[in-house]
Structure formats: C-alpha cells, structure tokens
UniProtKB/TrEMBL annotation:
Protein's name according to its UniProt entry: small monomeric GTPase
SMART domains per record: RAB, RAS, RHO
Classification via InterPro entries: P-loop_NTPase, Ras-related_GTPase, Small_GTP-bd, Small_GTPase
Broad EC category: hydrolase
Amino acid sequence: MRLTQSMCTIAECAPGSEGCPAARPRLVKIAVVGGSGVGKTALVVRFLTRRFIGDYERNAGNLYSRHIQIDGEVLAIQVQDTPGVQIHEHSLDCNEQLNRCIRWADALVIVFSITDYKSYELLSHLYHHVRQMHPGNAVPVVIVANKADLLHIKEVEPQHGLQLANMLGCAFYEVSVSENYNDVFNAFHVLCKEVSKQQTASTPERRRTSLIPRPKSPNMQDLKRRFKQALSAKVRTVTSV
C-alpha cells in the first residue's frame, strides 16, 4: 500500500519495490513519551498507517517499524511507544525500561492531552529528564498537545503548551489524532528531517576519520629496514665475488 501526502512525499514501502531503493535506508529511531491516557499509541499508529483506532489495550511499550519515504528519501522509521509516566513525590517515576527507550532514541515526542492538566505538568519534568539521558547531545524534541477536538472538556489552554515549548526550545504541535492526519504527520516529519540532517552532518566526519591511515607499527618498520640492509649486504657480497 502506498501513502502520499500532499504537502510532502510520504510513502510506506519496502526496499527494492518500485520507487524505493534496494540499498539499506537511513535508520531514524523515535520514542514517544508522556502521561497515561494522552493518546501516545493512537498517535504512533495514526502516523504510520493513517488510521485512527479509538481503543487500545494497556500500553506495554511496543516498537513499530516501517519503511517510509519522506521528501524523496526512504527512511527506516522505528517508533517506540512507552507506558505512561507519573509524578511521584514531585519527581518523575521513570523505570529502567523507559530510560532505555529514551537513551535509544534519536529523537523524542513528548505528548500531553489538553483534557488532562496533570499530563501538561509532566512536560517540563520529561524534557529535563530527556536532556539528562542525552548529556551533551542536542537530541530533537517535539511537544504534541493531543485531543484538540475536545475543547468542551479542555483543562489546558493551547497557548500554554506553545509558551512552554518556546521556553524549552522545542517545536510544538496541537493535534487531534482522531480528526486530522496532517498535523500528526507534520510533527513526526520535523523530527525525521532534523535527525536526517544531524546524521548527514556527522557522516563526512566519520568518513574522514576512516580515511586517515593508521600509523605503521615501529616493529614492522624495523623489520623492513633490517630486511633491506640484509638484502643490500647480500648483493654487495655477490658482486665482490
């Protein structure tokens, strides 16, 4: 099945199929984190399949994989869904499974629901926890405010999420997973582009490093010098005879 997005090219495909190269595609790993019940799983499935499914079983932290074409480049997208996070005694209750997911990721989506103020309160804690898990690494982060269609029961004003995202230096998207695919796509598209840019920028450096010749072993150089000396001496002896 092939999916096409009007704003940018996005397609679900397998390597070697028509329009998708057989070469190994660039790998982009994204973790989706946030409080319980904010729609993380629905967000992931919506992005990868365009489908919306309203009810899910309790999140066990599934890993979703797809080959997707974005802006003409095939990417191997891996999206790690994670169980809901809570605040316990003014600090995040993060288990080792969540920490491994955060360290594994090239980029992160932090999700909250506009109908749940407690999920909004998690944002700053989660963002700083991500930075602690990636010290010295500017891993891209997008903040997503979900359930934008439920304005009649909202507990968080949209501008509050935007203001916090600006303060933290993150991109911000207000989406309705159930009603609008384009906004969901745009949030992930920004992350994929940023990760691809970072990977492209680091590739030449790795290539230059690999082209630097290794220093020759002093022992090998000494053996070569001795071999040449012995060969020269043998030639002189034969000449004199």
